[in-house]
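Sample intake sheet
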Amino acid sequence: MTSPHSLHADAVSALVRGLPTPLVLEPIAHNGAGVPASETAAAVTASFVGAESADLAVVLASSSPLSAIAGTDSPLVSAADVLRPSLEAASATLGVGVLGEARTEDASALFADPASVVFELRSAEGPAGWFAIRLRDTPSVHGGSADDSIVGKMGRINNIEMALTVEIGHTRMSVRDVLNLEPGRVVELDRSAGAPADILLNGRLIANGEVVVIDQDYAVRITKILDVVEGLN
Protein backbone atom coordinates (compact mmCIF):
# COMPACT_ATOMS: atom_id res chain seq x y z
CA MET A 1 0.00 0.00 0.00
CA THR A 2 1.39 3.40 -0.97
CA SER A 3 2.03 5.72 1.98
CA PRO A 4 0.32 9.16 2.08
CA HIS A 5 3.76 10.81 2.13
CA SER A 6 4.69 9.06 -1.11
CA LEU A 7 1.36 10.04 -2.70
CA HIS A 8 1.93 13.70 -1.86
CA ALA A 9 5.49 13.64 -3.23
CA ASP A 10 4.49 11.82 -6.41
CA ALA A 11 1.60 14.22 -7.01
CA VAL A 12 3.64 17.41 -6.69
CA SER A 13 6.46 15.95 -8.82
CA ALA A 14 3.97 15.12 -11.59
CA LEU A 15 2.42 18.59 -11.31
CA VAL A 16 5.80 20.30 -11.70
CA ARG A 17 6.64 18.18 -14.76
CA GLY A 18 3.30 19.11 -16.30
CA LEU A 19 3.61 22.88 -15.91
CA PRO A 20 4.17 24.56 -19.31
CA THR A 21 7.29 26.46 -18.33
CA PRO A 22 11.05 26.19 -18.92
CA LEU A 23 11.68 27.19 -15.29
CA VAL A 24 13.36 24.56 -13.13
CA LEU A 25 11.11 24.19 -10.09
CA GLU A 26 11.88 22.42 -6.82
CA PRO A 27 8.96 21.36 -4.59
CA ILE A 28 9.65 22.27 -0.95
CA ALA A 29 7.41 21.40 2.00
CA HIS A 30 5.72 24.60 3.17
CA ASN A 31 3.49 25.93 5.92
CA GLY A 32 0.22 26.43 4.05
CA ALA A 33 -0.95 29.14 6.43
CA GLY A 34 1.99 31.25 5.26
CA VAL A 35 0.88 31.43 1.62
CA PRO A 36 -0.28 35.02 0.94
CA ALA A 37 -4.08 35.30 0.92
CA SER A 38 -3.82 37.62 -2.05
CA GLU A 39 -2.36 34.72 -4.03
CA THR A 40 -4.68 31.92 -2.85
CA ALA A 41 -7.70 34.07 -3.71
CA ALA A 42 -7.12 33.18 -7.38
CA ALA A 43 -6.07 29.55 -7.09
CA VAL A 44 -6.96 26.90 -9.66
CA THR A 45 -8.62 24.00 -7.87
CA ALA A 46 -10.11 20.60 -8.69
CA SER A 47 -11.38 17.59 -6.76
CA PHE A 48 -10.42 13.99 -7.54
CA VAL A 49 -12.70 11.07 -6.68
CA GLY A 50 -11.41 7.52 -6.92
CA ALA A 51 -9.51 4.80 -5.12
CA GLU A 52 -7.69 7.70 -3.41
CA SER A 53 -9.75 10.91 -3.31
CA ALA A 54 -8.27 14.36 -2.85
CA ASP A 55 -8.71 18.11 -3.21
CA LEU A 56 -5.97 19.87 -5.17
CA ALA A 57 -5.05 23.50 -5.75
CA VAL A 58 -2.22 25.30 -7.50
CA VAL A 59 -1.31 28.97 -7.12
CA LEU A 60 1.11 30.93 -9.28
CA ALA A 61 2.98 33.75 -7.57
CA SER A 62 2.03 37.02 -9.24
CA SER A 63 5.63 38.22 -8.97
CA SER A 64 7.03 35.15 -10.74
CA PRO A 65 7.61 34.73 -14.50
CA LEU A 66 5.57 31.54 -14.13
CA SER A 67 2.39 33.59 -13.73
CA ALA A 68 2.65 34.69 -17.36
CA ILE A 69 1.69 31.21 -18.61
CA ALA A 70 -1.86 31.66 -17.35
CA GLY A 71 -2.18 35.37 -18.07
CA THR A 72 -4.63 36.12 -20.84
CA ASP A 73 -7.48 38.52 -21.49
CA SER A 74 -9.12 36.15 -23.97
CA PRO A 75 -12.38 34.45 -22.94
CA LEU A 76 -11.17 31.40 -24.92
CA VAL A 77 -8.30 30.57 -22.57
CA SER A 78 -8.48 30.80 -18.78
CA ALA A 79 -5.97 30.04 -16.05
CA ALA A 80 -7.99 26.91 -15.25
CA ASP A 81 -7.64 25.76 -18.88
CA VAL A 82 -3.88 26.28 -18.83
CA LEU A 83 -3.27 24.58 -15.48
CA ARG A 84 -5.78 21.70 -15.72
CA PRO A 85 -3.29 19.38 -17.52
CA SER A 86 -0.90 19.84 -14.59
CA LEU A 87 -3.64 18.96 -12.11
CA GLU A 88 -4.53 15.94 -14.26
CA ALA A 89 -0.91 14.80 -14.11
CA ALA A 90 -0.90 15.19 -10.31
CA SER A 91 -4.21 13.35 -9.86
CA ALA A 92 -3.09 10.51 -12.16
CA THR A 93 -0.58 9.47 -9.48
CA LEU A 94 -3.50 8.73 -7.14
CA GLY A 95 -4.78 5.86 -9.30
CA VAL A 96 -8.07 5.29 -11.10
CA GLY A 97 -10.66 8.00 -10.62
CA VAL A 98 -12.30 11.13 -11.96
CA LEU A 99 -10.90 14.66 -11.83
CA GLY A 100 -13.68 17.21 -11.58
CA GLU A 101 -13.90 20.59 -13.24
CA ALA A 102 -10.92 22.89 -12.78
CA ARG A 103 -11.99 26.31 -11.63
CA THR A 104 -10.47 29.54 -10.37
CA GLU A 105 -11.54 30.33 -6.81
CA ASP A 106 -10.38 31.27 -3.32
CA ALA A 107 -8.49 28.29 -1.88
CA SER A 108 -7.35 29.93 1.36
CA ALA A 109 -9.21 27.37 3.47
CA LEU A 110 -7.61 24.45 1.64
CA PHE A 111 -4.08 25.85 2.04
CA ALA A 112 -4.67 26.61 5.74
CA ASP A 113 -6.30 23.25 6.55
CA PRO A 114 -4.02 21.16 8.82
CA ALA A 115 -5.02 18.10 6.78
CA SER A 116 -3.53 19.62 3.62
CA VAL A 117 0.06 19.08 2.54
CA VAL A 118 1.47 22.21 0.91
CA PHE A 119 4.54 22.59 -1.28
CA GLU A 120 6.29 25.75 -2.38
CA LEU A 121 7.32 25.61 -6.04
CA ARG A 122 10.70 27.33 -5.85
CA SER A 123 12.69 28.58 -8.82
CA ALA A 124 16.12 30.19 -8.89
CA GLU A 125 14.41 33.59 -8.56
CA GLY A 126 12.36 32.59 -5.52
CA PRO A 127 8.83 31.28 -4.91
CA ALA A 128 7.08 30.67 -8.23
CA GLY A 129 3.91 29.18 -6.80
CA TRP A 130 2.37 26.77 -4.32
CA PHE A 131 0.57 23.44 -4.52
CA ALA A 132 -1.83 21.99 -1.94
CA ILE A 133 -3.22 18.46 -1.76
CA ARG A 134 -5.66 17.17 0.84
CA LEU A 135 -6.35 13.43 0.82
CA ARG A 136 -9.82 12.40 1.88
CA ASP A 137 -10.45 9.46 4.18
CA THR A 138 -11.35 6.36 2.18
CA PRO A 139 -12.72 3.47 4.26
CA SER A 140 -10.91 0.22 3.59
CA VAL A 141 -12.74 -2.95 2.64
CA HIS A 142 -11.68 -5.92 4.76
CA GLY A 143 -11.88 -9.61 4.05
CA GLY A 144 -11.35 -9.46 0.31
CA SER A 145 -8.67 -9.28 -2.35
CA ALA A 146 -7.06 -6.06 -3.57
CA ASP A 147 -9.38 -6.06 -6.59
CA ASP A 148 -12.41 -6.48 -4.30
CA SER A 149 -11.19 -3.51 -2.27
CA ILE A 150 -10.96 -1.35 -5.39
CA VAL A 151 -14.42 -2.39 -6.52
CA GLY A 152 -15.81 -1.56 -3.09
CA LYS A 153 -14.26 1.89 -3.12
CA MET A 154 -15.31 2.69 -6.66
CA GLY A 155 -18.82 1.42 -5.95
CA ARG A 156 -19.39 4.50 -3.81
CA ILE A 157 -19.32 6.70 -6.93
CA ASN A 158 -21.48 4.51 -9.18
CA ASN A 159 -24.14 7.22 -9.49
CA ILE A 160 -21.78 10.02 -10.47
CA GLU A 161 -22.33 11.22 -14.03
CA MET A 162 -19.27 11.24 -16.28
CA ALA A 163 -18.59 12.88 -19.63
CA LEU A 164 -18.21 10.52 -22.59
CA THR A 165 -16.33 12.12 -25.48
CA VAL A 166 -15.66 10.86 -28.99
CA GLU A 167 -12.52 12.18 -30.70
CA ILE A 168 -11.94 11.75 -34.43
CA GLY A 169 -8.51 13.34 -34.13
CA HIS A 170 -6.57 16.12 -32.49
CA THR A 171 -3.73 18.54 -33.05
CA ARG A 172 -1.56 20.90 -31.04
CA MET A 173 -1.79 24.65 -31.56
CA SER A 174 -0.21 27.63 -29.90
CA VAL A 175 -2.45 30.10 -28.10
CA ARG A 176 -1.59 32.60 -30.86
CA ASP A 177 -2.96 30.27 -33.53
CA VAL A 178 -6.12 29.57 -31.51
CA LEU A 179 -6.82 33.27 -31.14
CA ASN A 180 -6.32 33.75 -34.90
CA LEU A 181 -8.97 31.17 -35.86
CA GLU A 182 -11.69 32.49 -38.14
CA PRO A 183 -14.60 31.06 -40.21
CA GLY A 184 -13.32 29.07 -43.19
CA ARG A 185 -10.04 28.12 -41.55
CA VAL A 186 -9.17 24.42 -41.99
CA VAL A 187 -7.55 22.70 -39.02
CA GLU A 188 -5.76 19.49 -40.00
CA LEU A 189 -6.05 16.57 -37.57
CA ASP A 190 -3.56 13.77 -36.96
CA ARG A 191 -5.84 10.98 -38.18
CA SER A 192 -6.63 9.65 -41.63
CA ALA A 193 -10.17 9.18 -42.96
CA GLY A 194 -11.63 5.84 -41.91
CA ALA A 195 -9.41 5.45 -38.86
CA PRO A 196 -11.22 4.50 -35.61
CA ALA A 197 -12.35 7.24 -33.29
CA ASP A 198 -11.20 7.44 -29.67
CA ILE A 199 -13.81 7.12 -26.92
CA LEU A 200 -12.83 8.90 -23.72
CA LEU A 201 -14.46 8.83 -20.29
CA ASN A 202 -13.71 12.05 -18.45
CA GLY A 203 -10.60 12.41 -20.58
CA ARG A 204 -9.38 8.80 -20.11
CA LEU A 205 -9.18 6.64 -23.24
CA ILE A 206 -11.36 3.54 -22.74
CA ALA A 207 -12.37 2.32 -26.22
CA ASN A 208 -12.23 2.73 -30.00
CA GLY A 209 -15.22 3.03 -32.30
CA GLU A 210 -16.60 4.26 -35.59
CA VAL A 211 -18.89 7.23 -36.10
CA VAL A 212 -22.32 6.33 -37.54
CA VAL A 213 -25.58 8.18 -38.24
CA ILE A 214 -28.84 7.02 -36.64
CA ASP A 215 -32.04 8.91 -37.51
CA GLN A 216 -29.99 11.91 -38.62
CA ASP A 217 -28.11 12.00 -35.32
CA TYR A 218 -24.44 11.15 -34.91
CA ALA A 219 -23.60 8.10 -32.80
CA VAL A 220 -20.60 5.89 -32.19
CA ARG A 221 -20.40 2.13 -32.60
CA ILE A 222 -17.87 0.63 -30.17
CA THR A 223 -15.43 -1.66 -31.95
CA LYS A 224 -12.88 -2.28 -29.20
CA ILE A 225 -12.82 -1.96 -25.41
CA LEU A 226 -9.32 -1.18 -24.21
CA ASP A 227 -7.76 -3.07 -21.32
CA VAL A 228 -7.87 -0.82 -18.26
CA VAL A 229 -6.61 -3.38 -15.72
CA GLU A 230 -3.20 -1.69 -15.58
CA GLY A 231 -4.88 1.52 -14.50
CA LEU A 232 -6.21 -0.20 -11.39
CA ASN A 233 -2.75 -1.05 -10.10
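Comment: The longest helix spans residues 4-18. The helical segments are 4-18, 37-40, 79-92, 108-112, 146-154, 175-179.
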